Amino acid sequence: MKIAVASDNGMVAGHFGHCENFNVFHVESEQVVKHEVVPNPGHKPGFLPNFLHDLGVEVIIAGGMGGGAVQIFNEKGIEVVVGVRNSAKEAAELYLKGQLESTGSICHEHQHAHEDGCNH
């Protein structure tokens, strides 16, 4: 299994598409066996969910995410966990322990960024 965490400076990024990079945790037998940092190749509508799917990601963790990205992840069978504010490593570890819950912090309108809880 691969868990990707949208990250800025090692912390979960406030908005998935605008993160610096993705911390990708390779998991075997409920343990992280490898960790890599993949630079964000750029925010283009619909691109990042497909990019992460092509990397073999099965779970994406972020602070907030637009509804379009959530829909594509759902179509690809990738679990979306949003509303997270931990370090990337801690978020992945909490997910593996079953202690990380999505708050459903979906960004609906980018022009109202500060009203919907997303940090753009």
From TrEMBL:
Domain of life of the organism encoding this protein: Bacteria
Database matches in Pfam families: Nitro_FeMo-Co
UniProt-listed Gene3D superfamilies: Dinitrogenase iron-molybdenum cofactor biosynthesis domain
Protein name in UniProt: Predicted Fe-Mo cluster-binding protein, NifX family
Span of domain Dinitrogenase iron-molybdenum cofactor biosynthesis: 9-96
PANTHER family: DINITROGENASE IRON-MOLYBDENUM COFACTOR PROTEIN-RELATED (PTHR42983), IRON-MOLYBDENUM PROTEIN (PTHR42983:SF1)
